[in-house]
C-alpha cells in the first residue's frame, strides 16, 4: 500500500497459486495477491482507496466490489474485462457507511468458477462511529470467509455444476481452529459459497448479531442460530468470557438438519476485555417515500435450461431497467421456481449493485431476524415475494442486479439497470 494525496493505493495481482485447503495436499487455485483468501483491504469511510488490479492469469477477469458505492467504471462490469497481461486502476471513494464488503471476480458466465477457484477477498470500511461504540477491534475483529468445494482424493478442487454436495471451508482451510482469549470477539462472516444456505450454530453459545450487509444494525440482536446466504454478510459478537481455558467450541452449519463443522474456537487464555456491545448501534437512514414499484420475477427461463429475470436471460446489449437518479423505488422480488425439484427447493439470493436496500416484508409478513438493517443481498425462497426499497443516488451509469447463486447468474439470472 502507498499513500498518494488523499487516497490509499494498492496493487493487487490476480495470479494462479497453490494452497493447502487440506493440510499436506497442495491444490491449484486462482488468487488475488497469491493468497487463497485475497488480502483484506481495510478502508475508512470518506477516504478513497484505489486498487490497481494486475491480471497475471491465463484468462480475462474483472473485479467487483460487492457492497461498494462506486462509479460505474470501477464496478467490474462483466463484459468489460481485464485481459491477461493488462492491468486497471479502480477507484473506491468509500463515501458510504462502515460495513463489511468483499471483492470478487465478475466475469460474464465464468464468475461462479472464478470465485470458487479463489478470486475473492474482504474489503472492510470502518465508519467514524465504530471506534466510539467500543466494539471489539484490532486483533479481536476477525473476518471469516466461508466457502465450499468438492475435492478429489489428492485435495484438488473439482468444479462441477450444482447441486453436487460440497464441503465447507473457512479462510482457506478445511475445519481450521482459531485460538481465542476468554473475551469478546467481533466476527465478520461472509457466505462466499456457490449455492449453500448456511445456518450457523455454536452449540447453544449466544451470538449477538451487530451488523448485516450494509453495516451496523440499529440495535444488537441475541441469537443462537444465524442464517447467512450466498453473497450475504452477518457480523456477530461472541463472548467467550464464560468459557474456561481449554474449552473448544465448534461453529457448525445446521441448515440441512445434519451438522457440518466449519471451524473450531479454542479458548487458550484469560484476558481483560474493555469492549462492549452498546444497546444502540447505528440509526438507520430515513426511508424516503417510493415513487415507483417494479416486479422482478426470478425463475427458470421459458426453455427451462437457463435462469431468468422477468423471463429474460442476461443480454449486455439490453437495458432492463432505467431509473432516474435520486429516486426511491420498491422492488417486489418473486421466486417463481417450485419448492420441489429433483435437486430440492430452488432458492435465489437477490443482489443489487450500487446501493443498499431495506427489506420491507416477506409475503406481507415481517422480514427475518437481522434483516432490519441495510442490505444488498436477500434470500428469496420458492414461492416467496420479498419487497425491498432502495434510493438510487450517487452515480449514473449501468449497474447489475442478479441472483448471487453465481451458477444462476452465469446462465442468465442477471440484468442491468441504468441510472440516468
Ligand atoms: Cu457479489 Cu454482482 O456481485
Ligand atoms: Cu455487488
Ligand atoms: Cu438463483
Description:
The chain has 420 residues and is mainly beta. It has 3 domains: 2-126, Cupredoxins -  blue copper proteins (Immunoglobulin-like), CATH 2.60.40; 133-270, Cupredoxins -  blue copper proteins (Immunoglobulin-like), CATH 2.60.40.420; 292-419, Cupredoxins -  blue copper proteins (Immunoglobulin-like, Sandwich). It is 4% helix and 49% strand. It has helices at residues 111-116, 128-133, 406-410; strands at 2-4, 7-22, 25-32, 38-44, 48-55, 63-66, 87-92, 99-105, 120-126, 141-151, 157-158, 167-170, 177-182, 184-191, 198-201, 207-212, 215-223, 225-228, 233-239, 248-253, 260-270, 292-300, 307-309, 321-323, 328-335, 348-352, 357-362, 374-375, 377-380, 385-391, 397-403, 414-419. Strands 10, 11, 12, 14, 16, 17 and 19 form a 7-stranded mixed β-sheet that branches. It has a 6-stranded mixed β-sheet with strand order 23-22-25-30-27-28, with no helix packed on it. The longest helix has 6 residues, at 111-116. It starts with a strand and ends with a strand. The site of CU-O-CU linkage has 10 residues, from β6 and β31.
Amino acid at each position: 500500500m502507498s499513500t498518494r494525496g488523499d487516497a490509499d493505493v494498492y496493487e493487487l495481482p490476480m495470479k494462479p497459486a497453490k494452497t493447502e485447503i487440506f493440510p499436506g495436499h497442495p491444490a491449484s487455485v486462482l488468487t488475488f495477491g497469491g493468497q487463497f483468501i485475497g488480502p483484506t483491504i481495510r478502508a475508512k469511510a470518506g477516504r478513497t482507496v484505489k486498487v490497481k488490479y494486475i491480471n497475471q492469469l491465463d484468462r480475462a477477469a474483472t473485479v467487483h466490489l460487492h457492497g461498494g458505492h462506486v462509479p460505474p467504471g470501477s464496478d467490474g462490469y462483466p463484459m468489460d474485462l481485464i485481459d491477461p497481461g493488462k492491468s486497471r486502476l479502480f477507484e473506491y471513494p468509500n463515501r458510504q457507511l462502515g460495513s463489511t464488503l468483499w471483492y470478487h471476480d465478475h466475469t460474464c458466465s465464468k464468475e461462479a468458477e472464478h470465485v470458487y477457484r479463489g478470486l475473492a477477498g474482504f474489503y472492510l470500511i470502518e465508519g467514524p462511529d465504530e471506534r466510539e461504540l467500543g466494539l471489539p477491534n484490532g486483533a479481536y475483529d476477525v473476518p471469516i470467509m466461508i466457502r465450499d468445494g468438492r475435492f478429489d482424493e489428492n485435495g484438488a478442487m473439482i468444479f462441477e455444476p450444482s447441486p453436487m454436495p460440497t464441503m465447507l471451508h473457512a479462510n482457506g482451510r478445511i475445519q481450521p481452529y482459531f485460538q481465542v482469549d476468554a473475551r469478546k470477539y467481533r466476527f465478520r462472516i461472509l457466505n462466499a459459497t456457490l449455492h449453500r444456505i448456511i445456518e450457523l450454530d455454536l452449540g447453544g453459545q449466544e451470538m449477538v448479531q451487530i451488523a448485516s450487509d450494509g453495516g451496523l444494525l440499529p440495535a444488537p440482536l441475541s441469537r443462537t442460530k444465524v442464517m447467512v446466504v450466498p453473497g450475504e454478510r452477518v457480523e456477530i459478537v461472541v463472548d467467550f468470557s464464560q468459557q474456561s481455558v481449554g474449552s473448544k467450541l465448534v461453529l457448525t452449519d445446521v441448515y440441512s438438519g445434519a451438522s457440518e463443522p466449519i471451524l473450531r474456537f479454542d479458548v487458550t487464555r484469560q484476558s481483560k476485555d474493555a469492549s462492549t456491545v452498546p444497546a444502540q448501534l447505528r440509526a438507520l437512514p430515513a426511508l424516503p417515500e417510493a415513487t415507483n414499484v417494479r416486479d422482478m420475477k426470478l425463475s427458470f427461463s421459458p426453455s427451462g435450461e437457463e435462469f431468468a429475470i422477468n423471463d429474460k436471460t442476461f443480454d449486455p446489449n439490453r437495458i432492463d431497467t432505467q431509473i432516474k437518479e435520486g429516486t426511491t423505488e420498491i422492488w417486489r422480488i418473486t421466486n417463481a421456481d417450485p419448492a420441489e425439484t429433483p435437486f430440492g427447493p430452488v432458492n435465489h439470493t437477490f443482489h443489487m449493485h450500487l446501493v443498499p436496500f431495506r427489506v420491507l416484508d416477506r409475503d406481507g409478513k415481517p422480514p427475518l431476524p437481522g434483516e432490519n438493517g441495510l442490505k444488498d443481498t436477500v434470500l428469496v425462497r420458492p414461492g416467496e415475494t420479498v419487497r425491498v426499497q432502495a434510493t438510487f443516488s450517487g452515480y449514473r451509469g449501468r449497474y447489475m442486479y442478479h441472483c448471487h447463486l453465481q451458477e444462476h447468474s452465469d446462465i442468465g439470472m442477471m440484468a442491468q439497470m441504468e441510472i440516468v
